[in-house]
Amino acid sequence: QVQLSESGGGLVQAGGSLSLSCVNSGQTISSYHVSWFRQAPGQDREFVMGISRGGVGTYHKRFTISRDNAKNTVYLQMNNLGPEDTAVYFCAASPQAISPNTWGYDFWGQGTQVTVSS
Description:
Blueprint: E1 4-7, E2 10-13, E3 18-24, E4 33-39, E5 46-51, E6 63-68, E7 73-78, E8 87-94, E9 107-108, E10 112-117
Parallel strand pairs: 2-10
Antiparallel strand pairs: 1-3, 3-7, 4-5, 4-8, 6-7, 8-9, 8-10
């Protein structure tokens, strides 16, 4: 069973950084591709970036994704944040592949709020 839990969100000023963590308290996360999504108020949930089982991450100009399978954790390092990054951030796991679509994932965390002030 996969049980994902995000942490690390908070309030930060524009230009600042935050590091989010996604911990799987269930079976090992190494069997899953993991992605981060975010959802701003009134908006659809959107893909941020993902990382494969083998540790290959998708590209983002300001963010970095990494994983530590020994700690059952996937990280999202976010730099140079702006107000447009304000959202609830979710991690999601899939045994099949990284997908930019929410329906591609079998497991989701509850989310962590990121608020960027201008």
